[in-house]
Write a structure and sequence with these properties.
globular, mainly alpha, Glycerol uptake facilitator protein, 10 helices
Length: about 270
């Protein structure tokens, strides 16, 4: 064996270990007996997202929260999503959002059979977050998403649709298969949410998530303009699926495998 062959062995062994680990992750992702982990992950992750997103407004409305600026409130959810993707993206995909779950399913990267469970888990997590905020601080509607002063509900719906179109485009373009994982996905998605929220929040609240908007409205029992936060994100997400098809074509098993890093060790074409 030549010196060059021996030098290449560590790299090949590393690739083989990587592929074996990815195969195990994929098997676990497809194992229906572990669905409870995925659902718990979605509920817990959505709780964390909503407690930060709605909590910025709730705490900011308190005397001791007066130093919270709009930029702080806008950037916090993006940073939280980034952290969530890092710590649980490989478990459930870190959807945290019915619009994202539906987009993955419509794209063909996520089983429709799992969609209802994910949406219920997201609902539970979001509502528990708002109940917690209401119990600890009160005035949950201070964390609700509403059109800004002088902004019509229609304009808010258009803004939510546009922001969600961009968000889901980023997610579909950087997510691994049906899972929102990895450094690239975490940074891209978290950064997008934080940056667009800075300028979108004064217009519509920059929800981009029907469940994030529903939970405070339900706990506070005030559904003013809620339709904008349901219709806008869902329409934006579906348009993003169409755009993804135009950009990348139809999803294929080989493409999903390549995106998920589970190509066989002998198939080097996708590396």
């Amino acid at each position: 064996m030549s010196t060059n062959d021996r030098a290449g062995e560590p790299g090949i062994e590393w690739l083989e270990r990587r592929f074996r680990a990815a195969d195990i992750d994929q098997q676990r992702f497809d194992d229906s007996s572990l669905e409870y982990r995925r659902l718990f992950s979605e509920a817990w992750g959505t709780f964390l997202l909503v407690v930060v997103a709605a909590g910025g407004g709730v705490v900011g409305a308190q005397a001791f929260g007066g130093d919270l600026t709009l930029a702080m409130k806008a950037l916090a959810p993006g940073m939280m999503v980034m952290g969530i993707i890092f710590f649980m993206g490989t478990i459930s995909g870190a959807h945290l959002n019915p619009a994202v779950t539906l987009a993955f399913a419509a794209r063909g990267n996520f089983p429709w059979l799992r969609v209802p469970g994910y949406i219920v888990a997201q609902f539970v997590g979001a509502v528990l977050a708002c109940l917690f905020l209401q119990w600890v601080f009160g005035d949950i509607m201070a964390g609700a998403t509403l059109p800004g002063p002088g902004v019509s509900t229609g304009t808010a719906a258009l803004m939510e649709g546009l922001l969600t179109l961009g968000l889901v485009s980023v997610i579909l373009g950087t997510a691994t298969g049906a899972r929102n994982i990895g450094i690239a996905g975490a940074i891209a998605v978290g950064s997008y949410i934080g940056l667009v929220s800075v300028w979108g929040a004064p217009v519509s609240g920059a929800s981009m998530n029907p469940m994030r908007s529903l939970a405070p409205a339900l706990v506070g029992w005030d559904f003013t303009a809620y339709w904008a936060y349901l219709v806008g994100p869902l329409v934006g997400a579906m348009i993003a699926v169409v755009f993804e098809r135009i950009l990348r074509g139809s999803p294929t098993k080989a493409g999903a495998n390549a995106a998920q890093g589970i190509l066989g060790p002998g198939d080097m074409a996708g590396l």
